[in-house]
Amino acid sequence: MQYREYPPLSEPPAHVPSELIRDVDIFNLPGAKDGVHAAWKRLQTEMPPVFWTPRNGGYWMAVRAKEILEIQNDAVTYSMRASLVPRNPRPYPAPPMDFDPPEHTPWRILISPAFSPKVVAEVEDMARQTAVALIESFVPRGEVEFVSEFTKVLPIVVFLTMMHLPPEDREQLLPFADAIVKSPHPTKIHEARLGLKAYIERAVADRRANPRDDLITKILNSKVAGQPVDEAHAVGMLTLLLSGGLDTVKNLLGFCALFLATHPEHVRQLVNKPELIPHAAEELLRRHGVSNTARLVTKDAVLAGVELKEGDQIQQFSGLVGLDSETVSDPMTVDFSRPAPIPHATFGNGPHRCPGSILAKRELLLWLEEWLKRIPEFRVKPGTVPQQDAGMVNNVSELWLSWDLRS
Amino acid sequence: MAQITFIEANGQRKVVKANVGESVMRAALDNGVEGIAAECGGCLSCATCHAYVDPDWADKIPAPSEEERVMVECAIDVRPTSRLTCQLLVTDELDGLVIEIPTSQY
């Protein structure tokens, strides 16, 4: 599928008032390399609630909790059919994400059970063993590049195991995962998605020939709206699941590790009181949102007094809901003593809410538990600079951590 | 208004006045009932608002939809009267309903 390149600056359509135009490029966000979330937060405090950027094809941005939640909860007016910036279709049909309710529902019901509390509880032991083995492999070294040796590996192994695919296939998938995380350029990410798709195509062909008791076979044998699921949709949905859990979990873990490496007093709280970890994980999730999906405006609408036209694209940064002082007080501060429930929209809301949220949270929790048991004090390795940036998914592409070896 | 009694996992009973038309999940959350996570906010995709309907009430409430049947099986410690409380809408007929909250949603 042809990938569409956009000019550096697009001419705004006639209905966009000039006073609402701001030159914001999410792939070159000022200050993001020093702190992604602080950079997004500046947009929230300095920009109008809804404004137009001429970058990446030209589209609206919503940066405050109220409008972001309005977008997330109205999946018909704000469709996910144009979720990528710059606007390009995914290189495969991607149910349930790209489908609007009510067509969305039967697809969602196909995959939601695969990431349910019951299934996550079943895979927890495997995920924990994987995490422990990875951590113990580098503990004696006193340092690690956390992204390449941990965050990149754990979600792939968990996904492959859940799909009953060989864990050793991670070797073929890691380069794609790497490109998705490390490449600032959307075309490279596009190519990597095609690589993941080719892998899934082979897996689907195998299950077609050798059915098993697993999710891939189940999807292939399912009907949606009375029609058997065709190969293209099965491949697309599974590729979406694979890619959806890679860079998101990876970057979430990266941001949380970076935060803890630079906030020893927070680490001490968790080491001294491990029972705090589930609540602390929720607070870390609030403060370190990763996904910045966009929407297609399907009918003329008014948002924060701004007139949007059918066919416009609007991007919402889910993480900004939890960083809005309308949501919590002193939002940029990580405070493990905030009262529960800690409000945030890191996983989105409404029908398209992240289906893997329970799994993602479990991966964060078990990482915290197993890491802190073995590495109760750690820091950013002196002389290194953590690499972080904004994008469709906020990312940590390199993070060297070090700790003192116990004698 | 309908009166709903929630029995939390620790045995504590919370009696709640629920508004007709809202979900039992919403009534629990808004009245500080412990043990309902409701991760997805009521769109039938997470199975973390799972609870047990008192057996005496099981036949008096509307049957689950096919989608709810699929999703309730995803919860932990499912019993014959398990329901997803986001799908149970409060009606006048539910006055006196008793709901037991499971030990954990995860």
**Strand sequence of the main sheet of chain A, in spatial order?**
1-2-10-7-3
Distance between the termini of chain B: 31 Å
Give start-end ranges of low-pLDDT stretches of chain B: none
Number of helices of chain B: 2
What is the number of helical segments of chain A per DSSP (H or I, 4+ residues)? 14
Low-confidence stretches of chain A: none
Quaternary structure type: heterodimer
Q: Structural class, from helix and strand content of chain A? A: alpha+beta
Can you describe what's shown?
- The complex is a heterodimer of chains A (407) and B (106).
- Chain A is 44% helix and 11% strand.
- Chain A contains 14 helices and 14 strands.
- Chain A has helices at 36-46, 65-73, 104-111, 117-138, 146-151, 154-162, 170-182, 186-209, 215-220, 231-261, 264-272, 277-287, 319-322, 357-374, and strands at residues 50-53, 59-62, 78-79, 143-145, 223-224, 227-228, 294-297, 301-303, 306-308, 313-316, 379-380, 387-389, 395-398, 400-402.
- Chain A has a five-stranded mixed sheet, with helices on one face.
- In chain A, helix 4 packs antiparallel against helix 6 (154-162).
- The mean pLDDT of chain A is 93.
- With 106 residues, chain B is α+β, with helices and mostly antiparallel strands.
- Chain B has a five-stranded mixed sheet.
- The N and C termini of chain B lie far apart (31 Å).
- The mean pLDDT of chain B is 94.
- The interface between A and B is medium-sized, with 20 and 19 residues.
